[in-house]
Amino acid sequence: MAILLCLCAGAQTFDSSGNGLLNGTYYFREVIWVVGDGAGDLSEGISLYGNISFDGNGHYTLSNSQAFVASQMGSSLQGFSGTGTYSIAASGFGFLSPLTTSGGPIYGLVSNGIFVASSTSSAYNDLFIAAQLPSPAPTNSFFNGSYTMMEVDFSAGTPAGTIGAQFQLNPNGSGTIGSVNITGYLCPNGCGTLTQTNTGVKYLFSNGGANVNFQGSATSSLIFGQKYFYFSPDGNFVFGGDPQAFDMFVGVRSPATAPNFGGLYYQAGVYQDDSELTVTGVGDLNTYYGSFNVNGGNILADERLLSLFNTGPFHYSYYDTYSLNANGSYDDATNHYVFGNGGAIRIGVGTSTSLGINVAAKAPSFTPSGVYIYPTGVVNAASSAPFTAGVAPGEFISIYGSNLAPSIKSDSSFPTQVNGVQVLINGNAVPVYVVSPGQISALVPFLLPSNIAAIQVINNGVASNTVTEYVNLTAPGVFTVPSGGIGYAAALHADSSLVTPSNPAQIGETVAVYLSGLGTVSPTIPDGTPGPTGTLSLATNTITALIGGISAPVSFSGLAPQLVGLYQINVQIPSGLAAGDAFLDVSGPDFYSSQALISIQ
Question: According to the model, what pLDDT value does residue 314 have?
Answer without folding.
Answer: 97
